[in-house]
Design a protein that fits this description.
With 458 residues, this protein is mainly beta. It is built from 3 helices and 33 strands. It has helices at residues 2-6, 74-78, 197-200, and strands spanning 22-26, 31-36, 59-63, 87-91, 115-117, 121-122, 127-132, 139-143, 155-156, 161-163, 167-174, 184-189, 192-194, 211-213, 217-223, 228-232, 237-240, 256-257, 260-267, 270-275, 292-293, 307-316, 329-333, 341-344, 361-370, 373-377, 384-385, 397-401, 404-408, 417-423, 431-436, 440-444, 451-457. An 8-stranded mixed beta sheet has the order 13-14-19-20-17-16-15-18. The chain has a 5-stranded mixed beta sheet with strand order 6-12-11-8-9, with no helix packed on it. The longest helix is centred in the N-terminal third of the chain and has 5 residues, at 2-6. It is elongated.
Length: 458
């Protein structure tokens, strides 16, 4: 977000992944003036620069102030260490001097920028941060109040800096015979307690802001792809993107989790919670999240990651007749909209390889978003219910009556009968218990299950 705020436009042309070469070309002549990387060559993952392995992946490169013009010899630019390279290698997303560049042709070499140990990031316990520069006899000045350090501003570093709350350290290095280094910055984040997901969703994004969700959230879906988890409480829902596998505890569907810590990241319009610590064992189990009955037209960004139910949903695709095993885009519509939304399938689901239904279905799904467009994603095959059509879901009352369990519900318009299903474990599926022609059904207490649901049939 901090980088986007400084930009004038957004384009996918900058979606590099570390092994992409870039050339600065003079259009009228076709002459190449400067390069990063070797055009036409795949280095595997990234190129090394200034002795830093994989420097063109997840780092920021800054041209040294003494470089006076472009250089088409990438190997000469790379160098083998800090001294003979044309580049200064910084940590990922370093933007301390974005929008300006120090240019000092013929000047002294620049002192090596200070480094931080431990590095910037999110921490749960107090730490001591050591500063160092690889330039001999360098003096380091640093600040922790947000001001820019200089030869006269800041504290001269002598011993590790104690950090126990969210702190930004800025530092600069000076050495005899060297020009000052660039100012470098490290953000150390400590969690802020947030009581519920709705409040969490309103907080600033970025790894410099870490939050602990103190209230319990219920797991409504998880997928091995990026270790994705969807959680929901009484206020809202959010998706956990755990590509680094920070959460190591194994959870079952509908477990309650308390004390999740992480930061917020906005990915193409979808708000994600990126964990920074494992919250530990589940604090409850077998919770029940009742999907909210919604129309597709009513979905907004506030519904992201929420478990909902859509009546009379029609799923289509131009070429596919079966659900794919990978993440793919299908189309879905209902009576509330004139067009369609995207139905985004999850990786490796149990509906992969099954036929896409041709008739309207009752669709239980999680709400997603891609830029400005809302999306929905079913979790399991059981989320795609045929036979319910566009009829409303019966609101069932369950009463113990002597040796029986009596179920009743208001009549649903257009329904000719009702299918009664039961289960002791609703997360593994329901089985048909019977069919009722009226809006009531009775079950012997000896045969009763823990959970019942009723589906109106046309």
């Amino acid at each position: 977000p901090e980088i986007l705020a400084l930009g004038n436009s957004i384009s996918t042309v900058t979606y590099f992944n570390g092994d992409d070469a870039i050339a600065l070309v003079h259009i009228p002549s076709g002459d190449t003036l400067d390069v990063v990387g070797t055009v036409g060559y795949d280095p595997g993952t990234a190129w090394d620069v200034a002795g830093t392995t994989g420097a063109t992946l997840n780092h920021t490169l800054i041209r040294k102030a003494t470089v006076i013009q472009g250089n088409t010899d990438w190997e000469a630019q790379q160098g083998t260490n800090e001294a003979d390279s044309e580049w200064i290698v910084m940590e990922q997303d370093y933007i301390g001097n974005l929008g300006s560049h120090t240019y000092n042709p013929g000047g002294n070499p620049m002192a090596a920028a200070p480094t931080f140990d431990p590095p910037a990031g999110a921490y749960m316990a107090p730490i001591n941060v050591a500063l160092s520069s690889s330039t001999p006899d360098a003096t380091i000045r640093y600040t922790t109040d947000g001001s820019e350090p200089s030869s006269t501003v800041g504290t001269i570093y002598s011993t590790p800096i104690p950090v126990s709350t969210s702190t930004t350290i800025k530092a600069i290095a000076y050495a005899p015979g060297f020009d000052p280094s660039i100012v470098v910055q490290a953000d150390y984040a400590y969690p802020v307690s947030i009581s519920d997901i709705a409040t969490l969703r309103t907080q600033p994004t970025g790894s410099g802001h870490v939050y602990t969700l103190t209230g319990e959230a219920v797991l409504t879906y998880q997928n091995a792809n990026r270790n994705t988890k969807y959680i929901q409480d009484a206020t809202a829902a959010i998706v956990i993107d755990d590509n680094n596998g920070i959460i190591s505890t194994t959870y079952n569907l509908y477990d309650g989790i308390t004390g999740i810590s992480g930061y917020l990241n906005l990915y193409s319009g979808l708000l994600q919670f990126v964990p920074t610590a494992d919250p530990g064992a589940a604090t409850s189990s077998n919770n029940v999240i009742v999907p909210e009955v919604r129309t597709l037209a009513s979905l907004t960004s506030a519904d992201q990651a929420k478990l909902i139910k859509v009546m009379g949903a029609t799923i289509t695709h131009d070429t596919m007749t079966q659900f794919p095993s990978n993440a793919a885009n299908l189309l879905v519509s209902d009576a509330s909209i004139d067009t369609t939304l995207t139905l985004r399938t999850f990786y490796n689901t149990d509906y992969a390889g099954t036929d896409i239904p041709t008739d309207p279905v009752t669709l239980t799904c999680l709400v997603g978003q891609y830029f400005d467009a809302m999306q929905v994603s079913p979790r399991f095959l059981s989320d795609i219910e045929t036979g319910g059509g566009a009829l409303q879901t019966p609101a069932v009352s369950i009463v113990r009556n002597g040796s029986n369990v009596d179920l009743s519900w208001p009549a649903v318009d257009g329904a000719n009968s009702y299918r009664v299903e039961s289960s002791n474990d609703p997360y593994s599926g329901f089985t048909t218990h019977g069919t009722a022609s009226t809006n009531a059904y009775s079950v012997s207490a000896a045969d009763a299950k823990k959970f019942f649901r009723v589906i109106a049939l046309p």
